[in-house]
Amino acid sequence: MQVVGGLARRAIGDFTLESLLQDLAVAVADVLEIDGVGVSYHDGEHMRVVHTLPPLVDGAERVQEEDGSGPCHDAVNTESQVSEGELAQHSYRWPRFAEQALAAGLNAVAALPMLGRGRAWGALNLYRREPGPFSAEELTAAQVLTDVACGYVVMAHDRAVAEEAERQAAHTATHDGLTGLPNRALLYDRLNHAVATTSRGRRAMAVIFIDLDGFKSVNDTHGHQAGDELLRQVAGRLSTVVRKGDTLARWGGDEFVVICEALTPGHPRSAGAAAGRSSGDAPQGADEHALEVIVDRLHGVLAAPFELPAVVRIGASVGVAAGVPDDGSSTGRDDVDALLRLADEAMYTAKRQQHQDAESSHKVINLLVEEDSTRTDG
């Protein structure tokens, strides 16, 4: 009973499935006069070895995992105890297992299923060097410990299922269901964090708005399924060129947003617009060349045709708002809203002008940022 109590006390604490089954193996080895023990977990499809004691039984346990056969599999499949006291004489039952066990000097084995909620969760294997059957008392004692452990195995499984459901719910709340990208809610959270860290570090940052050109035509011509597939492929391509540490999000519809952090300060005119201040008071803004490189990569990755399965080509209008957020004279929300508004305006300016000249969108955007900075000077 002391062993059962100890196993229960360990299980009540902060345990994992692996640590619990390891404790089961140790407890059985302490209670019974055996030469080895192995414990395996069955996830509903596959059996995997969790712990062996001592190392000499490892080969016999691993070959069961590899072959999908052996005493532990029979115990799980029949949901009953399986034993063999004369492995040398009855090696035909499990040829590869018997070969490994006998090579380790093990001549007797017993497998006990872990049963709960109408299914087998795994099995405990007992090994002995001396041939001969395990006694009823030994099997009963081992089964009691196995049953106690199985109750906590079920608890561990329930906890894992609940934690996974919680993770999935959190992911669903913050990510776009179609593309898997961060959604608008997570974008705002990342933006607030970026504004705070950028202003403290006196670094520059940028918000890039991307609106697909020709998306409506794809939807109208090829259907909404094709449109959805196009959005997934666009998200995948854009993800390949976004810098490590930056955020790519789906704003909604056919619009995407990139948050670029830790940019090198450059020309001051971008800073005033992004923070809602005059360029004269502000620190330097984002390096224009770095932004051009980023924007060119975004354009370039969308240039190749898309297979939906119909082959289509689309373009993109891109708007950028960049600068150094305020160091305290305005709220973080003011900076976030200013960056989003300026990037959105710049994107629509680029879209309006794309048929009028061959200027790239970031040059149009810089003109817009300078104009906004002039307005805020009052």
What is the compact description of this entry?
Pfam families: GAF, GGDEF. 52% of the residues lie in helices and 20% in strands.
CATH topology of the largest domain: Alpha-Beta Plaits
What is the approximate shape?
elongated
What's the number of extended β-strand segments? 11
Strand order of the largest sheet: 2-1-5-4-3
What's the tally of helices? Answer: 13
Write the layout of secondary structure elements.
Blueprint: H1 2-12, H2 17-31, E1 36-42, E2 47-53, H3 58-67, H4 71-78, E3 82-84, H5 95-103, E4 108-116, E5 119-128, H6 136-174, H7 184-201, E6 204-213, H8 215-222, H9 224-241, E7 247-252, E8 255-263, H10 269-275, H11 288-301, E9 306-307, E10 311-312, E11 315-323, H12 332-353, H13 361-376
Antiparallel strand pairs: 1-2, 1-5, 3-4, 4-5, 6-8, 6-11, 7-8, 9-10
Helix pairs in contact: 1-2, 1-6, 2-6, 3-5, 7-12, 8-9, 9-11, 10-13, 12-13
Protein architecture, described:
This protein has 378 residues and is α+β, with helices and mostly antiparallel strands. It folds into two domains: 2-171, GAF domain (Beta-Lactamase), CATH 3.30.450.40; 184-376, Alpha-Beta Plaits (2-Layer Sandwich). The protein is 52% helix and 20% strand. It contains 13 helices and eleven strands. Strands 2-1-5-4-3 form a five-stranded antiparallel β-sheet, sandwiched between helices. The model is unreliable at 267-284 and 358-378 (pLDDT under 50).
